What we know:
2 domains; 7-stranded mixed beta sheet; single chain; Four Helix Bundle (Hemerythrin (Met), subunit A); 40% helix; 4-stranded mixed beta sheet; alpha/beta
Amino acid sequence: MYTIDWIDGAVVLVDQTRLPAEEVYLRLETVDALVEAIQRLRVRGAPAIGVAGALGVALAAKQFERAEERAQAVQTLALARPTAVNLARGVHRVAALLPSFDAVLAEALRVRDEEIASSKGMARLGADLVERLCGPNPTLLTHCNTGGLATVVDGTALAVVFELHRRGALGGVVASETRPLLQGARLTTWELRNRGIPHRLAVDSAGPFLMARGQVDAVILGADRICANGDVVNKIGSYAHALGARAAGIPFICVAPESTVDLGTASGADVEIEDRGSEEVAGTTAPAGTEAINPAFDVTPAELVTAVVTDKRTFSGRADGPSL
């Protein structure tokens, strides 16, 4: 099954909060239920929530008869999480075809299918680049989760890992656990294990040290938004890995579909960074009442990014600049 799909009049998705202990699929028939799933990270990853937003408009077209109700549902979907560009982009692309349910659903399924196709393009281009930059059998450090759970199938950065493994050209993977919700520990290791790929888990703060010791040959991760100047907005902790990679002299590679490239945003300074509140960080470990600062994402400046790989091209520097 796909990570997220439209089946018999509803959005069906794997509940990522239940992994790795249980593989549970949710059937969501209302916009409110889908918004809750997006905000609670039952579905997450920029491409996946872009598809979720697109399919959510189909739910709105099915659920509401009045134009005002549909418009409110579209706005709620688009704003469910503010940082990743794919969500609002998917919602507004499909909402342009309202009120026709058939047209909306057909376009939403096109969004899904485009993400499936883009995973294959990223896998091929990214694997070619890693082989060129790193030579045979590199060990790659990943951050957060960038596999099929973050897209529809295969993934972004993990799709590259899967392709290198298929080619017999991968040494292994170090998966950083990813604070505070442990997407790397819970989800990436689950996907790597299912594919039979050698891997080890590391705490986030160990990444730069492992790079300095020569235990990592490149960093490869995804993005929630790639700005016009080449800044990469991704899961919190990415910037630290980029600094570590620069100090160690190893490649820092971002892999994301063209749908994540946002030429309308000049730089990372213009992106609203979601703060998920204190409970996720301080909830069960700190004294009661402790306040936390909990940005879900950070910004890696373009000058620290060796290359960005999309499903169509590989570039360094400005997102509207020449391909490598």
